[in-house]
Amino acid sequence: MCDGARRAGLESHGIEWDANAVATRLANRLATTHGDVREFGPSDFPKATVLAGGPPCQTFSVSGSGSGRRQLEIVLAAIDDMAGGVPIDWTRFDDDRTSLVLEPLRWALDAHCAGRAYAAIVLEQVPSVLPVWDAYATVLRGLGYSVATGVLKTEQYGLPQTRRRAVLIARLNGVAKLPEPTHRPYRKGVPQGGGDQSLLPWAAMDNAIDQHAGREYEVVSNYGTGGDPKNRGRRTNRQPAFAVTGKASRNRVVAPDGTELTRFTPASIGLLQGFPEGWTWAGDDLSQQIGNACPPPLAEALFRSAT
């Protein structure tokens, strides 16, 4: 989320466990601590006034293991325990990545107890995490925050892909509000120029990348729709991309005559995720880095709304 913070005029410092993501962050001059977020706390960053986070999504995502969704009740019970000062039995979680969704609350509670409560909190995750953010909201309101939660569509913030994200914005002073959309929602069958004329048109893949400039093509998703791997989604270059995931490089690109075109490069996938031209991707596993990132245009909108 740090590039979005930078776009919003905020100085940021991120904690990142993955060495590849650290290499990319440093290559783009983003202040970074390489380590496990569980080994740090608010006292390590005493000047910070905004807390932001996007915990790992793999156990909550519909394309992931699903263990986080299956353990949702355990996560919600843990939130109640944390609010009441009850120690958490971390062994109850099948996957460490699921328990990391509780880390932002730990930081918020620790900062509040230390008398240095964050002025604002910004969180984002896949839609299935919305119940977790709603439970957070109850706890944070008890600490004096105004809180707004919901699911946002990324194409409504200028992103050339359809991606839904569960978000939380909390403010210690003032009223928390989700950012107002700037672009129209994408609806199949509705032309780019159709819909609410008070909003900008949604962006198509062609509006963002020129890897196959001047050619018509269709992107065939790596994922099957309706749970059927044989029923893969298809979008043309005149439509937004599907949600960019860590496997986006596997998406096929096909010309109208069936000719297989070059698959999207990491640079093109990064543009679909909202990163700027000239962004440096470093390390390995680039598709996973890009797919795991919070789209910078959405992050910028969240930070501007929160601060």
Percent of residues in helices: 25-40%
Q: Please, how many helices? A: 11
Distance between the termini: 15 Å
Physical arrangement of strands within the biggest beta sheet: 3-4-6-5
Largest sheet: 4 strands, mixed
Instruction: Let me know the number of strands.
Output: 10
Fourth-level CATH superfamily of the largest domain: Vaccinia Virus protein VP39
How large a portion of the residues is in β-strands, by DSSP E? 15-25%
CATH third-tier fold name of the largest domain: Rossmann fold
Q: What's the number of domains? A: 2
Q: Which structural class fits the helix and strand makeup?
A: alpha+beta
CATH architecture label name of the largest domain: 3-Layer(aba) Sandwich
Order of helices and strands: HEHEEHHHHEHEEHEEEEHHH
Q: What is the average per-residue confidence, as pLDDT, rounded to a whole number?
A: 92
Question: Given the C-alpha coordinates, what overall shape results?
Answer: globular
Runs with pLDDT <50, length 5+?
none
- Overall CATH class of the largest domain: Alpha Beta
How much is the radius of gyration in Å? 20 Å
Please tag this protein with its features.
four-stranded antiparallel β-sheet; 2 domains; 11 helices; four-stranded mixed β-sheet; 16% strand; single chain; alpha+beta
Structure description:
- The chain is of the alpha+beta class and 307 residues long.
- The protein folds into two domains: 2-185 and 292-306, Rossmann fold (3-Layer(aba) Sandwich); 205-279, no CATH class.
- 29% of the residues lie in helices and 16% in strands.
- Strands 3-4-6-5 form a four-stranded mixed sheet, with helices on both faces. A four-stranded antiparallel sheet has the order 8-7-9-10, with no helix packed on it. It has a two-stranded parallel ribbon with strand order 1-2.
- The radius of gyration is 20 Å and the shape is globular.
- The mean pLDDT is 92.
